[in-house]
Amino acid sequence: MNRETLVESSATTSASLSKPIEIYVFVDPLCMNSWALQPLLRRLQVEYDRYFTLKIVLRTSLTKTNACCFVNMDDAKACDKSHPAFPSIALKAAEFQGKRAAFRFLSKLFEYTYLKKRNVLSFSVLVEIAESLGLDVDEFILDFSSHHVLRSLQVDLHLANEMEVEDAPSFVFFNENIEDEGLKVNGLYSYEIYEQILEEMVGYEITPDAPPTLDELFQRFDSLSTLEVAEIYNIPEKSAERELKKQLLLQKIERLPLSNMTLWRKRHS
């Protein structure tokens, strides 16, 4: 799992890194554990973003992808096709509009799948997600039906094979020395485990950044649960709920009550 073999495959790898650690996170959009990973990743970004760059990689079955019937552009907007590979393809199509667009799309995929119980295998639902995020929908549909997406998925598969990643979610940590082996962590563990690994990889004591204001937090992430907010600010969940309700009264955010949790998101005028 030496990074020298990955240089040509990864656009994020460079001879000189502005941050000491690279973290590759392998996810499956249809995996419950990958969804459970999201709050952990967000907190890691909020507290230790200055120490690492983050690359989300899909652990997608190439067999499923090859079997996928690409959408015909003439009837794309009215298409009602479904396929297990569609969420991965859609995520890559979103990624063509920027890294932040890809993060937001993945978050919304999880929300639609596990909280709203929508069928994200459906092309029409994926277009709906793109619209809800304010992406360029015409560009999204064009990219979805292009073979550039398949090529991008193949690159992810190559990375998974090179790093010997068989499961999602999985982390692979690299330090600044391109000749060093990466540190692979399969599965999902407590937040403190990832803090410890990051510190060991950096090689000196790391300190968390002060959390941003709630306004800044909701600028960064489209929606957050009460528990996520509590963990980011290291306060009891009831205290987090009180602060969120204050923001609600000020009409800065809105509440999205779901069957098993409450989500909060920035209010759009």
Characterise the protein shown here.
The chain has 269 residues and is an alpha+beta fold. The protein folds into 2 domains: 3-11 and 18-202, Glutaredoxin (3-Layer(aba) Sandwich); 214-266, Arc Repressor Mutant, subunit A, CATH 1.10.10.10. The protein has 11 helices and 7 strands. The protein has helices at 32-48, 62-67, 86-95, 99-115, 123-132, 137-144, 147-162, 191-202, 214-220, 226-233, 237-249, and strands spanning 21-27, 52-58, 170-174, 183-186, 223-225, 253-257, 262-266. The strands form 2 sheets. It has a 4-stranded mixed sheet. It is globular.
Outline the fold blueprint:
Blueprint: E1 21-27, H1 32-48, E2 52-58, H2 62-67, H3 86-95, H4 99-115, H5 123-132, H6 137-144, H7 147-162, E3 170-174, E4 183-186, H8 191-202, H9 214-220, E5 223-225, H10 226-233, H11 237-249, E6 253-257, E7 262-266
Parallel strand pairs: 1-2
Antiparallel strand pairs: 1-3, 3-4, 5-7, 6-7
Helix pairs in contact: 3-4, 3-5, 3-6, 3-7, 10-11
Protein name: ClpXP adapter protein SpxH
Subcellular location: Cytoplasm
Function: Adapter protein required for efficient degradation of Spx by ClpXP under non-stress conditions. Interaction with Spx stabilizes Spx and exposes the C-terminus of Spx for recognition and proteolysis by ClpXP.
